[in-house]
TrEMBL record, chain A:
UniProt entry tagged with the keyword Protein transport: no
Role summary: Component of the A-type ATP synthase that produces ATP from ADP in the presence of a proton gradient across the membrane. The B chain is a regulatory subunit.
Domain ATPase F1/V1/A1 complex alpha/beta subunit N-terminal: 8-73
Keyword set, alphabetical order: ATP synthesis, Cell membrane, Hydrogen ion transport, Ion transport, Membrane, Transport
Primary localization: membrane
Protein name according to UniProt: A-type ATP synthase subunit B
Annotated membrane topology: Peripheral membrane protein
Gene Ontology CC: one annotated term: proton-transporting two-sector ATPase complex, catalytic domain
Pfam family, one: ATP-synt_ab_N
Length: 459, 576
């Protein structure tokens, strides 16, 4: 299959059409030799006895009908090896750090096969991130996919890095690694991540894939797949616990939309392809734990919500697939609170299996529920106070209003390097819950009040 | 007849050289990938392929099986977990490991497993479609009835007893027809029934807001629409766990793999409240998760409902949960757009509404062909984009179903679960089931419930005033209404699916809880009229203690203690 075809009939956006080929496989990898001696890579999108459509990853710039097309006979594969750790690769897997090519232990299809649901082990191992709004109220567990929903200009990168630095399973010394994939972010942002990785020594345990803002958008469609392939390899072949950070999912989706438009597909909601849910699922669902295997893949991706709108198709479809979301709030950020995580729209769906006696602490769930209820009510009351004044509130409501402030100030707010243990987090929780009249603690069983409430505990 | 592939574009493959019928199953390519004919045009036909098509080339062979997409029905369905085209995921794992590779076939029912067949018909009996000819103990509590397939009838010339595999002959008719314990049925065709009857019994779910305010009837239809994180899946799983139904078919349609793993993990451990046996023994799972092939997702809903119909035909009450029907609709949209069909609203095919109603129409309370009563209750989750209920899937579904459980993101955000909005939800069965509730729960149940609904309605109106002037500006009797409603919401409506006791609430307990809240309301109103200050009425300890009785292992004692205290406290307030 090394025959070169010079039968291009049409070039349109990122797509190339050619005719009169031998039978070509769907999704097959293609190399294109340009007249100037450079090569580009692409993938077969549509193949029939008469015509083949190829999507070109590096863009079609410089291509013409003289270009030669070679079909490789296989789908896109990533050479993988444990030596990838510490390496910086391009968005399509080529070394960027001046180091040698990866000597592959294996070559793996980047699209990955879907994990058999029967083989999955429900994730339940608590990961302590040291951030109270996550550990206390939106707990992350190994094998979970829990993205950050943020907005432009908000400190999501700092939060992601703080998590990458601090995340640990208390009491465990198992092998871990970070796989970082940049999709369409600026080189400055990428630099910010790289410097932190270098400073903390995390780079040695990391595999980095960089597709930056000025790299071709089409390449963005394979970058996360490369990253997840590397992650799965390290997790399932080398028993590592891998934390995957994909940033920015929004840029990925924009590339998807661009490709859809180039193919003249019928667009779905707000111009995004109708299959975006399925496509995103093929990324997010590549997190998990497999029965009988030691490693795991945890995804902590970053998604900036266009216009801070959580109902925008990108966060919306993501939220339908991921196991919760951590929502960064502009309002809290303006108030000068770091990390500005708004717990109300945030959710960790796997929290219940990761917390409680023997995992975190027996009162964890009750404490979290109680804080949610009181904080939600307190925030509503803020709105009311703006209209009727604080005096119009009942005594009970005033207490709840004060709780909301305490919650933001003592529970949410913490230092950029402050690594709270889960005990710390729960203790802070009790110290602010204790400011509420005890009768209002309807979500907490009496036995926990007796055991942990500062008013009872010391007795 | 052999044909060949003409074109491959994702899950849609065009073939030529054979003349298939619509919906014929074909084997595509050298690996024999399974597909279904969905369009015929001239000498070409379009096939939706149930497996990944990467690497498949034009010119590869295609074989027509001549059969429609069918499921295998017989002993061994229970406790299984299947993909959308009834391949057992356990077998797939044995054959190809932890990741699903393509080109592997697997029978829906094991050909090795041996079942004890006890005939109930005898030589010389004349039998027709749907008649039971024998029994197999499928799980500890479920007796699997071996039925004559719907299209067959005749006189039995031979019937065996003993241990058999599902495909061995156990009965022969005089006309030469041979019957085994297994039958096949095309999934897109509803199995026939004797007669559809009116649903008149509630499906008891142990979920207070459902049983209490918005009940669904056995054989009825319900939809749970809601944005992500509002509680669709937890509600569906609660229904699968605690409903008083004989059989549960749970379809994970285009949703998360871990959720299915969770069910697989939990159900063998949990007990059916009715029989005390592990829940898994009454359950069939279909898991075609979001990352599994989209054409098989489209099929999964049909696979599930056909299995449900089969157990209904035995005279069982079956509940079917489909999570989520929106993903099914999206699968239709994806295939339709690959076919370049004229898109309807929001890109969905024009036949969306027809497909949805055909599906829900397969629910019902029926007289089976044999004359027994059986039912299928269908509960579909709907995932509207952006949580906007005006979108086509929600709207088309609401036109069909009789119960609407509207999930509300606002409630979920404050951890009010189940976050079913009590003002916008409805059940069209409420009236029809009132008689049943009066007889089987308590004569005053319906009054209690209607009063509670009235109060909640009032609360919504009062809240609007509070938003303008604050609650202290309200007259005291209205403040009391607000307090009673808070109790209704927190003590009664809120139910924690993850609390070992609260997760399931028997009807008797639901009644007593509601009655206790109502009792406080009456006594408080009387005290207020007698001139007791509002502040004192609100600060009764018994009122706060009532919040927690629902969590008590020993509910009755806890409740009695609170009620006694309540009497005492009101007496001390005096007034009267
Ligand atoms: N009845 C309930 N009791 C307690 N928690 C619930 C309940 N319903 C939902 N939740 C919480 O809400 C989260 C999201 O619910 P889920 O059913 O997964 O939402 P959806 O399917 O609508 O996206 C769950 O992970 C759980 O934490
Ligand atoms: Mg769900």
């Amino acid at each position: 299959m090394t025959k070169e075809y010079k039968t291009i009939t049409e070039i349109s956006g990122p797509l190339v059409f050619l005719e009169k080929t031998e039978p070509v496989g769907y999704n097959e990898l293609v190399t294109i030799n340009l007249p100037d001696g450079t090569t580009k890579r692409g993938q077969v999108l549509d193949t029939s006895a008469d015509m083949v459509a190829v999507q070109v990853f590096e863009g079609t710039g410089g291509l013409n009908e003289e270009s030669g097309v070679v079909f490789t006979g296989e789908t896109i594969k990533l050479p993988v090896s444990k030596d990838m750790l510490g390496r910086i690769l391009s968005g399509s897997g080529e070394p960027l750090d001046g180091g040698p090519r990866i000597i592959p232990e294996d070559r793996v299809d980047v699209n990955g096969a879907s994990m058999n649901p029967y083989s999955r082990m429900p994730p339940e191992e608590f990961i302590q991130t040291g951030i109270s709004t996550i550990d206390g109220t939106n707990t992350l567990v190994r094998g979970q996919k829990l993205p950050i929903f943020s907005g432009s200009g908000l400190p999501h990168n700092e939060i992601a890095l703080q998590i990458a630095r601090q995340a640990k399973v208390p009491g465990s010394t198992e092998d871990f690694a970070v796989v970082f994939a940049a999709m369409g972010i600026t080189s400055e942002e990428a630099q910010y991540f790289m410097e932190d990785f270098e400073k903390t020594g995390a780079l040695e345990r990391a595999v980095v894939f960089l597709n930056l803002a000025d790299d071709p958008a089409v390449e963005r469609l394979i970058t996360p797949r490369m990253a997840l392939t590397a992650a799965e390899y390290l997790a399932y072949e080398h028993d590592m616990h891998v934390l995957v950070i994909l940033t920015d999912i929004t840029n990925y989706c924009e590339a998807l939309r661009q490709m859809g438009a180039a193919r003249e597909e019928v667009p779905g909601r707000r111009g995004y392809p109708g299959y975006m849910y399925t496509d995103l699922a093929s990324l997010y669902e590549r997190a998990g734990v497999i029965k009988g295997r030691k490693g795991s893949v945890t995804q902590f991706s970053i998604l900036t919500m266009p216009g801070d709108d959580i109902t925008h198709p990108i966060p919306d479809l993501s939220g339908y697939i991921t196991e919760g979301q951590i929502v960064v709030s502009r309002e809290l950020h303006r108030k000068g609170i770091y990390p500005p995580i708004n717990v109300l729209p945030s959710l960790s769906r796997l929290m219940n299996s990761g917390i409680g006696a023997g995992k975190t602490r027996d009162d964890h769930k009750a404490v979290s529920d109680q804080m949610y209820a009181a904080y939600a009510e307190g925030r509503d009351l803020r709105g009311l106070v703006a209209i009727v004044g604080k005096e119009a509130l009942s005594e009970r409501d005033q207490k709840i209003l004060e709780f909301a402030d305490l919650f933001e100030d003592r529970f949410v707010r913490q230092g950029r390097d402050e690594d709270r243990t889960i005990e710390d987090t729960l203790n802070v929780s009790w110290s602010i819950l204790a400011e509420l009249p005890e009768a209002l603690l309807t979500r907490v069983d009496n036995k926990y009040i007796q055991k942990y409430h500062p008013a009872h505990k010391s007795k | 007849m052999k044909g060949e592939i003409y074109r491959v574009a994702g899950p849609v493959v065009t073939i030529r050289g054979i003349k298939p019928k619509m919906y014929d199953v074909v084997q595509v390519g050298h690996e024999g990938l399974m597909g279904e004919v969905i369009r015929i045009e001239g000498d070409k036909a379009t096939v939706q392929v149930y497996e990944d098509t990467a690497g498949i080339k034009p010119g590869e062979p295609v074989v027509n099986t001549g059969m429609s997409l069918s499921v295998e029905l017989g002993p061994g369905l229970l406790e299984s977990i299947y993909d959308g085209i009834q391949r057992p995921l356990m077998v797939l794992q044995e054959k190809m490991g932890d990741f699903i590779q393509r080109g592997v076939t697997a029978n829906g029912l094991s050909r090795e497993k041996v079942w004890e067949f006890r005939p109930t018909a005898k030589k010389g009996d004349s039998v027709k479609g749907g008649d039971v000819i024998g029994l197999v103990q499928e799980t500890e509590n479920i007796e699997h009835k071996i039925m004559v397939p719907p299209t067959i009838s005749g006189t039995i010339s031979e019937i065996k007893a003993g241990k058999f595999k599902v495909d061995e002959i156990i009965c022969v008719l005089e006309n030469g027809t041979q019957l085994s314990m297994m039958q096949k049925w095309p999934v897109r065709k509803p199995r026939p029934v004797g007669k559809k009857l009116m649903p008149n019994k509630p499906l008891i779910t142990g979920q207070r807001i459902l049983d209490g305010l918005f009940p669904v009837a056995k054989g009825g239809t319900a939809a749970i629409p809601g944005p992500f994180g509002s509680g669709k899946t937890v509600t569906q799983q609660q229904l699968a766990k605690w409903s008083d139904t004989d059989i549960v078919v749970y379809i994970g349609c285009g949703e998360r793999g871990n959720e299915m793993a969770d069910v697989l993990n939990e159900f063998p451990e949990l007990q059916d409240p009715k029989t005390g046996r592990p829940l898994m023994e009454r359950t069939v799972l279909i898991a075609n998760t979001s990352n599994m092939p989209v054409a098989a997702r489209e099929a999964s809903v049909y696979t599930g409902i056909t299995i449900a119909e089969y157990y209904r035909d035995m005279g069982y009450d079956v509940s079917l949960m489909a999570d989520s029907t929106s993903r099914w609709a999206e699968a239709m949209r994806e295939i339709s757009s690959r076919l370049e069909e004229m898109p309807g609203e929001e890109g969905y095919p024009a036949y969306l509404s027809a497909r949805l109603s055909e599906f829900y129409e397969r629910a019902g309370y029926v007289r089976t062909l044999e004359g027994q009563e059986g039912s299928i209750t269908v509960i579909g989750a709907v995932s509207p984009p952006g949580g906007d209920f005006s979108e086509p899937v929600t709207q088309n579904t609401l036109r069909i179903v009789k119960v609407f459980w509207a999930l509300d993101a606002k409630l979920a955000q404050r951890r009010h679960f189940p976050s079913i909005n009590w003002l916008t939800s409805y059940s069209l069965y409420t009236q029809g089931l009132s008689g049943w509730f009066g007889e089987n729960v308590a004569p005053d149940w319906v009054t209690l419930r209607d009063n509670a609904m009235d109060l909640l309605q009032q609360e919504a109106e009062l809240q609007e005033i509070v938003q303008l002037v604050g609650s202290d500006a309200l007259p005291e009797d209205q403040q009391l209404v607000l307090e009673i409603c808070r109790m209704l919401r927190e003590y009664f409506l809120q139910q924690n699916a993850f609390h070992p006791v609260d997760t399931y609430c028997p009807f008797d307990k639901q009644y007593k809880l509601l009655k206790a809240i109502s009792k406080y309301g009456e006594m408080a109103t009387a005290a207020l009229e007698a001139g007791v200050p509002m502040k004192d009425i609100l600060s009764l300890e018994s009122k706060d203690e009532l919040a927690k009785v629902k969590f008590e292992e020993n509910f009755q004692d806890a409740l009695d203690a609170v009620l006694t205290k309540m009497d005492k406290e009101f007496a001390q307030l005096g007034g009267k």
